[in-house]
C-alpha cells in the first residue's frame, strides 16, 4: 500500500492558490452565485461512442476532475461528474481497427456524388456489436469507456444518450426545442453553407426509412427532413425532406419525435443536454470553440445559462500535427502506459492546458522525472504552495509520500551502460547508491525500472551509435580511466565529477561541454547522457573505467 501525504488546508490557503484549476473553480463559483441552484454542482465530459476511448478522453476527465476537486475545497459544496456518451448518433464512418468492418458498413451513412445522401447512419446504440460480445456497438464502446475510466479511479456517473432519449427523460426538453424550433434554426443557419441550410433541422427524426419514401430494415437518423407542421399532436410532427437546392423531395410524413423517435443535431443536443441535465461546468477542445459558442446561444434560447469551462489546446504529434482520434496519429494511451504511469500522463495534461504541446514518446523521460520532483517537493510544502503543486491536482489532494531515489534518465543510462534491464541488477545499483532507501522507495523504483527497460529497448537502443574518439578525446578518456581506477568505488559524486572535469581541462577544451558531448558519443553512443559524477558513483568507478577502456578498444 502506497503511503499518502495528507495535509490540511485553511480557507485562506485555498483562496490564495493560483494554479489553473483553482482559477477555473473561482469562475464556476461566480456562475453558481448567478444561477442560484441547489447542489449537486454538475460537471460534464462528453464522449462520442463510435470509437474507442483515447488519450484525449483521459485528459478531459482528468482535467475536469482537477477543477472539481479545487471547487470542492473552495466551497465545500456537493458535486457530480457526468460522463455522457452520445450513443444515439448515427454512424458516419466505419472506424479503423475494428473487426467486421463490412457488417458495420451496412449501418453507415452513405453520401451521393451531389452532396446528398443515399442513406443515413443508424444510431450506434442500434448497431450490432462488431466484437460480438455486447448488446450493441455503443454498448461495447460504453463498456470500454467505463472500464477505462474505472481503471484510473475516476469518480463519475455514466449517462447514455440513447437511454435518456428512449426512456423519455429528454422529452420535456425536446418539446421545448420544438417550441423554439425556428429560433434555434435561425441561430444555426448562418454557420452553414447554403446547400446545408435547406436541409438543416435541429431535430433529426429516427425512423426505418430514408425520409424520401424508401423504407429500410434498420433505423436511420434522417438528416434532410425539416419540420413543416409542429402541431399535429402530442409529439407528432409533420416533416418534409428537401434536396440541396431547397426543393421538396418525397412526400411529407408524420412522425413521433418523443421517446427515442428523434435525436437532436449535435450542437443542439449539446445545448439541450446542458439545459436538461443542469450542467454547470464543461471544458472542450479548441477545435470546438465555435460549437461551444453556438451551443451556448442555444441553451440561452431555451432559458438556461451555458456552463463555465474553457477550450483547451489539442496535443500535437511528432510532426506538430494535431492528434486526432480518427487518424490515430501521435501516441495512444496504451503506448504511454507501456513506458510510464498514468500519474505521469495526468501530470503532462495538467501543465499549461491552453498551450499546444507535443505529446510523443520523447517527452516521457522528462515528464516522469518532473513528476517525481514535484512529489518530493510536496512533502515540505504547506498552504497555497502545496495546493499549487501539480501533484495535489494529479492525485486529487492525496499524492504519494515515497519517490524513487533515482531518476528515470539515470535508470536509462544504467540499463544502457550495464547492458542489462534485469530488475535485480538495477535494484542492486540503486541500493548501493542509496543504502538508506526505504522499502517503499525501492518499490517505487521497481515500477520505474520496468518502464525504463522497455523504453530503453524501444527508443534508445535502436538509435545508439558509437563513434571513434579524436586524438584529444582519446587522451582525455585514457586519463579519466586511469584516474577512476585510482579513486576506486565509494566516493562522493563530486569527487568523480571533478575527475571528469580535470580530464577535459587537461586537453584545453575551449568549451567543456564539447568534452562531455564527446564522452557520451564515444562511451554511451548517445549525444547526451547522465551527470557523470552521479553515474560513476552508482555504476562504480572501476566499472565506469572498464566501460571507457572498452570504448577505446572498440574504436
Ligand atoms: Zn462487446
Q: Which ranges are low-confidence, i.e. pLDDT below 50, for 5 or more consecutive residues?
A: none
Number of domains: 3
Q: What does the radius of gyration come to?
A: 30 Å
Count the beta strands.
13
CATH architecture of the largest domain: 3-Layer(aba) Sandwich
CATH topology value of the largest domain = Rossmann fold
Helicity range of the residues?
A: 40-55%
Number of helices: 24
CATH superfamily of the largest domain: HUPs
Ligands, ions, cofactors: zinc ion
Task: Classify the oligomer.
Answer: single chain
* CATH top level class name of the largest domain: Alpha Beta
The main sheet comes to: 3 strands, parallel
How large a portion of the residues is in β-strands, by DSSP E? 5-15%
- Briefly note the structural class of the backbone: alpha/beta
Amino acid at each position: 500500500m502506497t503511503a499518502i501525504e495528507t495535509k490540511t488546508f485553511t480557507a485562506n490557503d485555498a483562496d490564495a492558490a493560483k494554479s489553473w484549476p483553482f482559477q477555473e473553480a473561482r469562475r464556476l463559483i461566480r456562475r453558481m452565485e448567478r444561477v442560484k441552484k441547489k447542489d449537486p454542482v454538475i460537471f460534464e465530459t462528453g464522449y462520442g461512442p463510435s470509437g474507442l476511448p483515447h488519450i484525449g478522453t483521459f485528459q478531459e476527465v482528468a482535467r475536469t476532475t482537477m477543477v472539481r476537486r479545487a471547487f470542492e475545497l473552495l466551497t465545500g459544496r456537493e458535486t457530480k461528474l457526468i460522463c455522457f456518451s452520445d450513443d444515439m448518433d448515427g454512424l458516419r464512418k466505419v472506424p479503423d481497427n475494428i473487426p467486421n468492418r463490412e457488417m458495420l458498413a451496412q449501418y453507415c451513412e452513405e453520401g451521393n456524388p451531389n452532396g446528398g445522401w443515399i442513406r443515413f447512419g443508424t444510431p450506434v446504440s442500434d448497431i450490432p456489436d462488431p466484437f460480438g460480445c455486447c448488446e450493441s456497438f455503443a454498448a461495447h464502446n460504453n463498456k470500454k469507456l467505463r472500464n477505462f475510466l474505472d481503471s484510473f479511479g475516476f469518480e463519475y456517473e455514466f449517462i447514455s444518450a440513447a437511454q435518456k432519449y428512449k426512456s423519455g427523460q429528454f422529452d420535456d426538453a425536446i418539446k421545448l426545442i420544438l417550441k423554439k424550433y425556428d429560433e434555434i434554426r435561425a441561430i444555426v443557419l448562418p454557420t452553414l453553407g447554403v446547400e446545408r441550410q435547406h436541409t438543416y433541422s435541429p431535430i433529426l427524426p429516427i425512423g426505418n426509412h430514408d425520409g424520401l419514401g424508401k423504407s429500410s430494415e434498420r433505423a436511420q437518423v434522417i438528416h434532410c427532413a425539416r419540420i413543416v407542421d409542429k402541431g399535429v399532436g402530442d409529439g407528432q410532427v409533420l416533416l418534409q425532406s428537401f434536396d440541396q437546392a431547397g426543393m421538396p423531395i418525397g412526400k411529407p410524413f408524420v412522425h413521433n419525435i418523443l421517446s427515442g423517435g428523434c435525436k437532436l443535431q449535435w450542437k443542439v443536443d449539446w445545448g439541450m443536454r446542458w439545459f436538461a441535465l443542469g450542467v454547470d461546468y464543461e471544458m472542450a477542445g479548441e477545435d470546438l470553440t465555435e460549437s461551444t459558442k453556438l451551443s451556448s446561444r442555444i441553451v440561452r434560447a431555451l432559458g438556461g445559462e451555458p456552463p463555465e469551462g474553457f477550450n483547451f489546446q489539442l496535443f500535437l504529434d511528432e510532426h506538430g500535427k494535431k492528434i486526432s482520434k480518427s487518424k490515430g496519429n501521435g501516441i495512444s494511451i496504451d503506448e504511454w502506459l507501456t513506458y510510464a504511469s498514468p500519474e505521469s500522463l495526468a501530470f503532462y495534461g495538467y501543465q499549461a492546458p491552453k498551450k499546444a504541446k507535443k505529446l510523443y514518446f520523447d517527452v516521457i523521460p522528462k515528464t516522469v522525472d518532473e513528476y517525481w520532483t514535484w512529489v518530493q517537493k510536496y512533502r515540505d510544502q504547506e498552504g497555497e504552495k502545496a495546493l499549487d503543486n501539480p501533484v495535489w491536482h494529479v492525485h486529487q489532494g492525496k499524492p504519494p509520500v515515497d519517490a524513487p531515489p533515482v531518476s528515470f534518465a539515470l535508470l536509462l543510462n544504467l540499463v544502457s551502460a550495464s547492458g542489462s534491464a534485469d530488475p535485480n541488477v538495477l535494484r542492486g545499483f540503486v541500493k548501493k547508491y542509496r543504502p538508506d532507501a526505504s522499502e517503499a522507495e525501492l518499490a517505487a523504483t521497481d515500477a520505474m525500472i520496468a518502464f525504463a527497460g522497455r523504453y530503453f529497448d524501444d527508443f534508445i537502443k535502436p538509435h545508439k551509435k558509437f563513434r571513434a574518439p579524436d586524438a584529444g578525446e582519446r587522451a582525455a578518456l585514457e586519463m579519466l580511466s586511469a584516474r577512476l581506477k585510482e579513486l576506486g568505488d565509494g566516493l562522493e559524486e563530486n569527487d568523480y565529477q571533478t575527475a571528469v572535469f580535470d580530464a577535459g581541462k587537461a586537453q584545453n577544451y575551449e568549451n567543456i561541454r564539447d568534452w562531455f558531448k564527446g564522452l557520451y558519443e564515444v562511451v554511451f553512443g548517445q549525444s547526451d547522457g547522465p551527470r557523470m559524477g552521479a553515474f560513476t558513483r552508482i555504476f562504480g568507478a572501476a566499472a565506469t573505467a572498464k566501460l571507457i577502456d572498452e570504448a577505446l578498444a572498440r574504436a
